[in-house]
Here is the input.
Amino acid sequence: MTIFYPGGAGEREAGVAGGPPPEERRRENPFRKRAIERMNNALHFLRSLAEFREPYLLLKRYGIPLVPLNAPILDFKCKINSTQVFSDPSDPSRWWEWEDYWLSPILEEFGSYLERVKDRRLVFRDNGGDIHVFRYRTRFDRSYQRKLSARFKDIVLDWGLLLTLTTDLNQYFDIIKAEKALRKVWNRVSSGLRRKYGHVEFFTALEFSFKRGHGACHLHIVLLHISHIDLDWLRERIGKHARWLHIERFRNLHLGGKKGYLTKYLRKQVVGFASSSSIAFKNSALLWLTNARGWSCSRNFMSSVRREPAGWVFIGCFPAFVAEHSDFQSDPELWSDPELWVYLRGRRKDG
Here is the structure.
């Protein structure tokens, strides 16, 4: 069942959702901070360009890139595609259609971040006092997809509802505000469901659509053992955030495994060997930029697959040449040296 809200930004592909990660007291990742600044500069230029309709049409007619002269804020390459169709070509303020401007600096900074963490190592100490060094792996690594899918492979949900909330980007000034608003909408809906049903089991996945949605964030929600949601009640809690809602019933839904519900969306969050122009890379970059989790679930889901702690002590994250040096591993005083660590038991120097 699909519900259409008049006055929105148009149809966009439904995608995935997730809840926000827990807040951490740490300094902001410098690559992410720089990406936000460059995105904001690009969007500011697009909105100022909207005030000059005739110069814009002239530039577009002759295929001249819309890059301001002597302006360092857009230092990435941009090429106008004459075959690209905009719903209103006289209105550059529709920022979400202009991926060449607002998305390009994000992808560049995200790529720099991934290159930076390749040279980091995580250091642990086991119960016997031995040191173990592991390569730093982000949640965008292919190994993360495999491990998470394997943890959920035996879980089959017998029946319930699938709900998709698709964000109307016309309501927001940038993708960060849109994603934050989507979190709040889901919190309102989930809180209302708990009041109605007492206890709600759910699983969510977050995705940014690039097939037809120009990065529109949408949340896929699995509601277990709920057979009906009042549409008027749901519209009231969603408000103007979403133009499209999609609701359907399911039976025997597999979460993990090769063809599982979770696996399908994890593949869109793994960069692997993907190029910077691929959907997976773009989706991962926006998850990183918005500091959002790609998936989330209720406590019972997690407790059913949680692994017992190994009893190891996490020492910290260090550059590879430090962590793998024999002098470092044999001298505990070096483990807390602020000149050596990247972050140490919750304390972080940089991104």
Remarks:
- Confidence is low (pLDDT under 50) at residues 1-25, 67-90.
